[in-house]
């Protein structure tokens, strides 16, 4: 992915608002693999990009590109969970997952990935209680909708890494504030400016 010459290659913000100096390096009890819908690749508001900067070992794999789909067969290994609502409430895993797969896109895109990618249908689910309080860049279609970064922070909290979760949410708040400044909305989100969120 090529960033604009006037934007940071890592966080995609312009130099005067670069997020990189504020990105913490967080320890997590598991690794994350973000399965990102192709439509999210170029969006400044793709929060998975910021989460990956803070969580070493996080891999972003793009889904839905014109070329052949990525090989995801390794995700069937024991200890892999998918971060997605479960049909029925389930307790958190007693042993931390080795890998957490995070579908990244709008709600409908994420749901279709879970339904259509065979290996994701077979994985146990790591579900969250609900979104954290705070300002968002996109209006959720569901009451429990949240950004990908917020969902990853929620997973950290469920898995006992509360401090890392809080620091990741603080990064999210800073990034949201900077995006709003870029859009000329320092005091809040204009309903016309937000996009649908998963």
TrEMBL record:
EC code = 2.5.1.25
Pfam family name, one = DTW
Q: What class of enzyme is it?
A: transferase
Stretches assigned to the DTW domain = 4-184
Which UniProt keyword terms apply here?
S-adenosyl-L-methionine, Transferase, tRNA processing
Q: Does the keyword Flavoprotein apply?
A: no
In the record, the note on similarity to other proteins reads:
Belongs to the TDD superfamily. DTWD2 family.
Its name, as the record gives it, is tRNA-uridine aminocarboxypropyltransferase
Q: What is the species of this protein? A: Anaeromyxobacter oryzae
